[in-house]
Amino acid sequence: MPEARCERVKPADADAGIPAGLDGYDAVLLTGSPLHLYEDTPEARREIAFMRAVFASGTPAFGSCAGLQVAVVAAGGQVRAMGSRREIGFARRIFRQPDGVDHPLLAGRPPVFDVPAIHGDEVETLPDGATLLASNGVTHVQAAEIRHDRGVFWGVQYHPEISLREVAAALRRQAEELIDLGMARDRLDVEQQAVLVDTLHREPERRDLAWRLGLDEQVLDPMMRMTELRNFLDRLVLPTRAARGRG
């Protein structure tokens, strides 16, 4: 949607400058965040208050990773730390739950798929008014719809919005954690994995690297990777915009 006009705000910051009149916006998108929503900090409280205002406005909202977690807590659910479990790099073998089989958020995804993912927290309990759409063997809540107050939120625990280059950067950034968790022996292990991912970003036609990393077009093709974002815009935002008489 290249013609869209976007405004960026940082609700966790005390001087965020959050605009008034959220119902005047077509959509709100919440990204990942280093905040832990189970910690009672001023930053977390401000994020949750912002999301409650979004729900009250009736403006369609989408969130990835911590964005999903913010919406869950704002609507009355719970988030927890994953302990020794992690998804750092890619979430594998995500499958639809029964309510996700025909849900428009996942339209175009195959029955089982992989996606970029980086998280150490997860949804523990969905709030009332939420529908579980997808899971995998590591994280039960991989995708959900939340209806709360006047609003509708679609969210995923993974990152349809990030590139392979950003995945490689995340691996390097969290190298010490990967070593501490036993997922890598040392920094060389992490760097070798990051180089493979980074190279595949630059050379997406490298079938040999895709095979070594176990990735298919669901991750390699940018349009397929961003399926949930496109579905949110096409199937929730634009119809809501039309219903509000905005064209």
TrEMBL record:
Keywords: Glutamine amidotransferase, Hydrolase. PROSITE patterns: GATASE_TYPE_1 (PS51273). Its EC number is 3.4.-.-. One of its GO terms (molecular function) is hydrolase activity. InterPro entries: ChyE-like, Class_I_gatase-like, GATASE. It holds the Pfam family GATase. Residues 13-167 form the Glutamine amidotransferase domain. This is Type 1 glutamine amidotransferase. It comes from Sphingomonas kyungheensis.
